Amino acid sequence: MHQYLTNGLLLAACSASLAFSAQTKEEDQRPNILVIVTDDHSYQTLGTCEKDSPMPYPNFRKLADEGMVFDRSYCANSLCGPSRACIYTGRHSHMNGYLFNEHAAPFDGSQPTFPKMLQKAGYQTAIVGKWHLEAIPPNARGDMSKYESNPTGFDYWEIFPGQGNYFNPDFITPGKDGKRVVKTEPGYATELVTQKSLKWLDQRDKTKPFMLVVGHKAPHRCWCPSIQNLGRAKQYADLADPPANLEDDFANRPEFLKMTEQTLLNHFNVWSDEHLIKEVVPEDIQKMLSCPESKTLHTKYDWEMPEWVRMDPQQKEAWYNYHKARTLQLVKDIRSGKIKTKNDILLRRWRHYMEDYLGTVLSVDESIGEIMDYLKKNGLEKNTIVLYCGDQGFYMGEHGLYDKRWIFEESFRMPLIMKWPGHIKPGVRSNAMVQELDYAPTFCEVAGAATPENMSTFQGRSLTPLFKTGEHPDFKDRPLYYAFYENPGEHNAPRHDGLRTERYTLSYLWTSDEWMLFDNHKDPAQMMDVHAKPEYAETMKELKKLYRQLRKDCQVPEGFPGATGKLSVTPRWDCGTGKN
């Protein structure tokens, strides 16, 4: 009923693949594929028009004007590593085996992925920057190799260990003896990833089409702008309107929401997250500012701001001086009575958060400009399909939250822009319901690698029918499945799964045995759970039926995502048969 890839779509994809293959043999004009992935980029700060960011980003705007923006793009699991596993495999977490960060085992690199498929089809492949499919649990000791995951399907890779760092980060490359080589590089992560990506493009085998993944750490926590971009976002953060539900009290929704540990008011670390300089804050004001429920307050600045220990003396001086001035202004405003209440503190904290976050995205915007200029100057622009995405959404104070995880729209929805001159109609904003699982089959189709063997592994569908207008019957009324597994875990978000239709978001909270339903047309801010309201009884009945059918179509094992504890999953590769 709601198969992710119907037989008709599979035949169409295979036909298109044959057409692309024939063209390749005659003209060798298969497109290059450039994938730019950021970490935790919110669609509220995408910057493609006046409405989707408080700060203008000229290169995001240009990419949108020359390509297509997908306004209803969603993730399958709102967590960094699992989301990336979904992107590479085109399969849900329960099928690719990577359920949450700090997993019991790293990502299974032996399974089918689109980089492997393109590599086999004759593409030269590379990834630079964030990979993040390892499995290093907290307080791990001893041999780290059992937690490591090297990229497979890539001819060249140079990646961050784990999350990576913003300042003077480490990069890992494969050594001659099979062991990893780790080298610290001076500079700022976003700029270094850009430089290394352009260097690879210069040195690649130019007789082959390429597929390059540019993996940025930005704008991941702890939201550190480059030294040259410090303060550049302040004017925009100061003038921005806070979300109307910044002071959300979590009423009218499941009780478990009140147990979340990711609020700006009570869980945001004022030292490592807000970047206040503790030594210039009087003790009485420290108590006023502290997040009473935060589990990550520490006493030494070096520990509290993890990036501090990565900085060289010049970087430290600039960082310290800027944030010291910002901290002293906060102290002054508290002493003068300008800031009096907890809600006053919350609003200022939100502005500091916005300033740092927007400033971190600014370097990504600059990176996109450099890469697009390179493609144009080297004659690659017209025959390169560019896909920009985040790995999930992010809260910018909505519901009083930061981070992601919950099925709320700000976490579930993710940025997606695609550009391919002559193939993707420029300047279009698509309202089609799409998901990150769709990228892999799209790449295989345009690359002439949409064989039945490859396409049978995917749970997504190719986006090529949307390229002309942004709309297509195959994407109309398409329900999307979501699942989140990490509990117990950071921020105490529940294990839950659910679905998104054009109008409704339905979720079942396995951790607390609660249902949650939002009518997104009437309540776009998702402030009222209506699952138990009489007027939604019939809707709830229909959506529960759809939920059960969607779980069946997606081959979700009985009892997943479960209530508590760890689940072990063997990756399942063939979505048509359920066999690996």
Automatic annotation (TrEMBL):
Family per record: Belongs to the sulfatase family.
Domain annotation Sulfatase N-terminal: ranges: 31-448
CDD domains reported for this sequence: G6S_like (cd16031)
Signal peptide: 1-24
PANTHER family noted in UniProt: N-ACETYLGLUCOSAMINE-6-SULFATASE FAMILY MEMBER, N-SULPHOGLUCOSAMINE SULPHOHYDROLASE
Name of the protein in its database record: Sulfatase N-terminal domain-containing protein
Glycoprotein as UniProt keyword: yes
Annotated transmembrane regions: none
Keyword Electron transport: no
Keywords for the protein's UniProt record, in alphabetical order: Glycoprotein, Hydrolase, Signal
